[in-house]
Design brief:
72 residues, three-stranded antiparallel sheet
């Protein structure tokens, strides 16, 4: 799930003058964890929401590979 050491920050590379774009960054390392396939998210809440969804799906896939039943 979403860790406490991540943050949605405005990306200078993806943003335009009146169209800010946000990416999810791991605060400890500065690594970009999610950039919406290179386009960036239009708002901070959308960035957090998108990253949470992707992490939830990744956990489900890992559990399936380990032989656990699907959670609904």
């Amino acid at each position: 799930m979403i860790g406490k050491n991540i943050k949605a920050v405005a990306s200078e590379n993806l943003s335009k003058r009146y169209d800010p774009r946000f990416v999810i960054v791991q605060m400890d390392t500065g690594e970009i964890l999610d950039d919406a396939q290179g386009y960036g998210y239009k708002s901070k809440p959308n960035a957090y929401r998108g990253y949470a969804y992707k992490e939830k799906q990744a956990v489900k896939r890992r559990r399936q590979q380990e032989g656990f039943k699907n959670e609904k």
